[in-house]
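Let us work through a complete example step by step.
Step 1: write down the sequence.
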Amino acid sequence: MLEDRPDKIRRRIATALAAAVAAPLVPAQVVRAAAPTIEVWTGPSCGCCREWVKHLEANGFDVVAHDGGNSAARERLGMPVRYGSCHTASVAGYAIEGHVPAREIHRLLAERPDAVGLAVPAMPRGSPGMEVGGVVDPYDVLLVQRDGSATVYQSYR
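Step 2: predict the structure and record it as tokens.
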């Protein structure tokens, strides 16, 4: 993932330049919003982290991934360790911890609550990136508040 980072940056710059040139030529109602960029710090050599990144990309996110550093990112972003998992992400000022479905991240970005972000603690089977032999554990996506408390944002059963 890190090896292709310069190519991703070049593609982003080229896309932005092309959009800037074309924007005056395209009616406003046709212009689509750019894909949200999400930065992800994975657990070293973690296969499920890579699968979650694929899930994000398939659901409209531009992903910048880093191998390792998720514990430091979690601390820097203010996500309490009790909500921890194997990867941490940052998008639009929010922390995303664990196997949060892209649908809930899009919802978070649309609603813009005053919160630290979203978390799916541990690694529930059946969550995005944790698809294991058709087994699905029930789990909750938590909205983590600035005081460290959390409420259920969405349940998956």
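Step 3: interpret the result. Residues 17-31 have pLDDT under 50 and may be disordered.
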